[in-house]
Amino acid sequence: MSIADKDFLPWVKLSSDRLEKELLAKQQFVPADKAHYPLQLNIKKVSKTVTDEVKERVRKFIPGKVFFPLDVDSSLTKSQQAVCLKVLQMYRSERDFNNLTKIEQENLDVYKKLHSVILEEHAKFSEYVKKDWQKKSDRLENMKNRLFAYTKTLWEKKLEKVIRYPSHYKLHDTICLAYEDPDNHIQVCMQENVHNSGTSKTVILPTLTSKCILSFRNLPSIENYELNSQMPVVSQDGNIVDLLKTNNVDVVLSMSALKRLMDDSNPHCFWNIPVIVRKHKVVLPDGNEQFKKFVFLDKALPMQYPTKFEFSEKCHKELVRTNFSRVFTNSEESNKLNQNVVYNIWNISFNDKENVLMKTKKLNRKINFLLRQKIDGFESLADGKTRPVVLLPKVEYQLEHGANIATKTELVKQWTDLLFRPFSHLYRVRLQGNTSEVVDVESVSLQKINSEAMHHHQYKPFERLGALFTVFTKLLDLECGNYMLHHNERTGAFAEVLIECINTEQNIKLDLTKAYDSNSCCVKVHKNRAWCPIDVNYILPAHATFKRMPGMFKPAVVVYNNKKGVKKKKKGKKRLKPTTGKFP
Q1: Percent helix, strand, coil in the chain (nearest 5)?
Q2: Of 312, 446, 447, 468, which has fewest CB within 10 angstroms of its CB?
Q3: Beta bridge pairs of residue 196
Q4: Which one, of 87, 88, 80, lies nearest residue 103 by Cα?
């Protein structure tokens, strides 16, 4: 076995491809005429140097380093914030507080004594951050040019597809989108999985031991995105037509349309959902065939006047999926079990087991709906099983102050994602807005979303199921034809059911040709977006590293005067003048 002599030089770092040969030959010495150290000594020295360098880099790296406000001092000292941070970490880890060590109990007592002071400073800190947001809200318009161009091109392609629907619509009916029957509870349950298709992917989350920036190169080209990423709308999906023949279904919709109906956070939002009511031939249990009426809800039409902020959210959603999910190629059997397009049949109805007065009891109508959804990927568990994963970005625009809370829109959509994807888990990938750097990956469950919705917005996402049942009930009463479920700032808590109008001389309510004309639709500048508060309980990596409490100012440096035994704030070091011509 011949090994190049230069690899044994003590000042040359060992290469990874020769490490195995080095270990096998560790008893051999460099030729005597070279007068080098023994190989065994070289291996120890070089390995230690490489390991130390890696540890040093990992130790120094802090994803999304937070720069604390310097013009306001915290009411807590550095040591007090460190103690309170440990208690906050115990709360977030759902630690059993009945089984604490002596030190942990002491820390908890300190936290309870300072709790009123912490809450008071949280309020001051939030006010400080809000004022800072008003000065720097233009950061929402900061978006990389190539990402903006990519997302804008995709949006323009979607505008072109609007012409496949009829152009003119008139008013037919209205539907209330507010749930006004709190006594009756809606019951939703999955019936069965009837079909799977697509390619399975596995999710690989970043370790964040070094800087992780989402790569633009992983995005598919416009041509490939159109061919592979875009599925046909549910009303034109051939798989669904075949499934309707042998399954008891009333309504068909995609996950995108479902989340649009569930989201009621903005009563002034403009959206249109195409609705197609038509009959298909079905096979009865006795073998006979007959025609049955079905309601198809296609994906909502694209926005007319999107903002750069909305473009950024859309683009980062695609970036997160393409960067952290890979094609799963372990076996053909796994591909069949974990495909990324799923067709499930669900049932929604009023729960007749509730004790309510007969006069308030509504008709117990059960509706079966076929839901088509895509899975971002699968992750392996400790027991060898896999579970579906939802990857969503959380773009941070005030990272120097902390992490933002989840908005009401985000929470209701994430709640819908988890409820209608059984046994799934959601990860929020928190990103720095202008650099697309991954700051943290947050694990989110359905219970956590319910808690956040109630704590931050006094909102119960499950109540939206009542509005969903109302919409399905109204649409099933329609005759066959083309409709449009229309909502704007004027309709508020209602949505208008528009029907196709062939005679253009009638009272036209919506003209798709004019509403979605490529010359009139444009990107809107929207700098006055509502401020999203900072989550004063979310611990970023920088908080854990510097032992600082989130949602609080930087603690003032305190030094002790040994002569008087009192403490005072440290103003800064003064430069010392040497008494002699030489430094000691």
Answers
A1: 40, 20, 40
A2: 447
A3: 342
A4: 87
**How far are the Cα atoms of 14, 18, 48, 59, 216 from residue 53, in angstroms, in the given order?**
13, 19, 9, 10, 30
Cβ-based neighbours of 112, under 8 Å, separated by 6 or more: none
74 touches 552 (CB < 8 A) = yes
Q: Minimal CA–CA distance to 510: which of 254, 165, 175? A: 165
What φ, ψ does residue 78 adopt, rounded to 5°?
-65, -40
C-alpha 139/C-alpha 527 separation (Å) is 8
Measured between alpha carbons, how far is 61 from 48 in angstroms, rounded to an integer? 20
In this structure, what token pair is assigned to residue 408? 């009401």
Tell me the C-alpha distance between 397 and 404, whole Å. 8
Residue the block writes with tokens 């819908």: 416
CA–CA separation, 92 and 537 (whole Å): 8
φ, ψ for residue 269, nearest 5 deg: -70, 145
Strand 289-297 and strand 251-254: pairing? parallel
C-beta separation of 316 from 395 below 8 A: yes
Tokens (6 digits) for 11: 């000042």
Residues 120 and 39: their CA atoms lie apart, in Å, by 63
Based on DSSP, count helices (H) and strands (E) in the chain, helices before strands. Answer: 15, 18
Mean pLDDT of 262-266: 92
User: Of all helices (H) and strands (E), which one includes residue 370?
Assistant: strand 367-374
CA–CA distance, 405 with 394 (Å, rounded to integer) = 9
Tell me the C-alpha distance between 64 and 400, whole Å: 8
- Dihedral pair phi/psi, residue 193, rounded to 5°: -95, 120
Q: What is the rounded radius of gyration, in angstroms, for the C-alpha atoms of the chain?
A: 30
User: pLDDT tens-digit profile of 471-522?
Assistant: 999 999 999 999 999 999 999 899 999 999 987 767 899 999 999 988 888 8
Q: Specify the DSSP element, H or E, that contains 325.
A: strand 325-327
From 386, 278, 404, select the one nearest 336 (Cα to Cα).
Answer: 386
Residue 408 and residue 373 in contact, taking contact as beta carbons nearer than 8 Å: no
Distance of CA 246 to the CA centre of its chain: 36
CB of 370 closer than 8 Å to CB of 416 = no
Specify the DSSP element, H or E, that contains 450: helix 446-457
Integer Cα distance of 288 and 509 in angstroms: 42
Report whether 296 contacts 278 (CB < 8 A).
yes
Global pTM value: 0.83
Is 153:221 a contact under the CB 8 Å cutoff? no
Per-residue pLDDT reduced to its tens digit, 171-197:
999 999 987 656 557 889 999 999 998
pLDDT tens digit string along 434-476?
889 999 999 999 999 999 999 999 999 998 999 999 999 999 9
Q: Give the dihedral sign, CA 426/432/434/436.
A: negative
Compute the distance between CA of residue 257 and CA of residue 234 in angstroms, rounded to an integer: 10
**How many Å apart are CA 299 and CA 260, to the nearest integer?**
9
